[in-house]
Amino acid sequence: MKIGIISDTHDNLWRLAEAIPHLQTTEAVIHCGDLISPFMIHRLGQGLSGKPVHLVWGNNDGDRRTVSKAAEGYTGFQIHGEYAEIELGNFRIAVNHYPEIGRVLAASDKFDLVCYGHDHTAHDEIIGSTLLLNPGEIMGLNGSSSIVILETETLEFERITIWTE
Questions:
Q1: I need a labelling partner for 56 at 20 to 30 A (CA). Which of 92, 95, 100, 127 fits?
Q2: Per-residue pLDDT at 5 exceeds 90
Q3: What pLDDT digit, counting tens, does each position of 12-23 carry?
Q4: For residue 141, what pLDDT is reported?
């Protein structure tokens, strides 16, 4: 199964629009937090038209009630709170926003993949038999925007830069 992994969109509609065509090629999408505003849900929902989207809260997601209400209008959206355990087929995924929590989850060896965001820095490493992954940021704070497309069968992934200074 091919999944898209994004994080730290921070209301950047323009970079999200650049990411959507890549995410449309996947069977599910994971958002590692800091979506920010309800209108981002609408852009994702319209752009991904019914594709499963799994989202965790980040530290900057303020109006959670309105974001949650907006997500109810789209088939496939699931807001997990601050932590998610997801199974796609036999592939086990943990998602949270913070790198230090991600590292602990990866070290538990309970998951095939652990995703996080928060520090806006693309990162990948294998801990035990778990891939620990930060897709980077969509926002562009650190001079580039990236997403990851991952094949669950092989753990092979492509980091796609959608913008760079």
A1: 127
A2: yes
A3: 999 999 999 999
A4: 95
CB 58 within 8 A of CB 98: no
| Continuous segment of H or E residues that includes residue 6 | strand 2-6
Domains of the chain, start order:
2-164 (3.60.21.10)
Give the CA dihedral 62, 42, 11, 157, nearest 10 degrees: 110
Per DSSP (E only), the strands in 32-83 are 53-55, 77-79
**Over the stretch 134-149, which tens digit does the pLDDT of each residue have?**
999 999 999 999 999 9
Q: What is the mean pLDDT of residues 29-56?
A: 96
b/e for 80-106, b at 16 or more Cβ within 10 A?
beeebebebeebbbbbbbbbebbeebb
Backbone angles phi, psi at 16, to 5 degrees: -60, -40
Distance of alpha carbon 54 from alpha carbon 117, whole angstroms:
14
Residues 6+ apart with CB under 8 A from 111: 85, 92, 93, 94, 105, 130
For residue 62, pLDDT over 90 is answered with no
